[in-house]
């Protein structure tokens, strides 16, 4: 693509120029060329951020690292988002050591706040089960003025400890929050309550609930019911049904503000007499959503929590009551239900949510909703149905497929051998300026060769090379052997390959 340089270049204009390049190496060339063309021009932080993001997305990690070092030498003011993006790129490529090294070098840059990078790296370490390294990272950086200790980073650390069955240490961090000028939020209580209950520390969990009453629940929120449910069901599972009912009474008075007669009329005493723990748990869940003032938040939180545990029938009961009460279900609740149905391989029921239930509820599916369904359909080998819903999504106002959507479609179609349809998705992907990965190109071109679509394979090979991507060596041999099997098309294909090799 030819570039028309302006009389006076600004970093904003250069950012637009390099974004328009589909070949990241061409974009880097223009980025470098700008300084030699304009004597007074200097790169700033945003244009560096744009170029670094382009190289990281394209997998050009060596060039990205070199450019980050160049940004350090220029000493231009840069934002935390640059390092945050680069750390994610290194982690995705499996280069955690590079990500840690970059984070440690941030003080050498002209950046005054790296809180987001800290939180991102901490989360990555937890996901990689590098718990001790994550803990040391926290200790080394928590008190630095450039890192604003937030409840998010503490929640990550508490979650990591709970995963290792060290809820005792997680509890000590919770108790020391005041010294960090941090205050627990609902997510803190949810994580810690689950960790304590899974470790059998029900006494501490009960005290945590009482602490929650005056810090969180007094403000009133229906979403709190899932935290109460965690403790109450853990008590029931341990045979401590009477204690669970006693605590439920306190929840009723202090958190749900439920009328006394509503608690008495629930019929919990009958369940206690029958010693049916599952019945007691069902009645408790019922009371948690009905006991106080019924709200969309309480019904949605309970239904989503049940769906996440795979309890579809229980979730449906809460979901149906939500609708009967006159509430409009949230899209996130439908998403939770769809994930549960796809996990149980009930993709037809999941598709019915978009086809009928969401329409009846006047609820518009989002990109995430469609992505969940598309993934479920491909997992069940229903690629033609997936194409139908992709087209429906593509034509829906305000629902633009994202990079994840196209990746799901391409991977699914290639896995089932529908390479012609995958080519059509590739074309739409390029129109939206979402660049396919090297693996996606290799998979598509290899499939086209194997299925006898030699000319199309060469066309997409040309597109791949024009984007600065390097085909697998095996792809060349596959393409040549495919051409040799058909002499009629060999001439045209060889000419195209000859042009590619010259370029």
UniProtKB/TrEMBL annotation:
The keyword Repeat is annotated on this UniProt entry: yes
NCBIfam families referenced in this protein's UniProt entry, alphabetically: PPR (TIGR00756)
PPR repeats: 79-113, 150-184, 185-215, 224-258, 295-329, 402-436, 437-471
Endpoints of the signal sequence: none
GO cellular component entries: mitochondrion
Organism, scientific name: Stephania yunnanensis
Pfam assignment, any one: PPR_2
Protein name: Pentatricopeptide repeat-containing protein
Residue runs in coiled coils: none
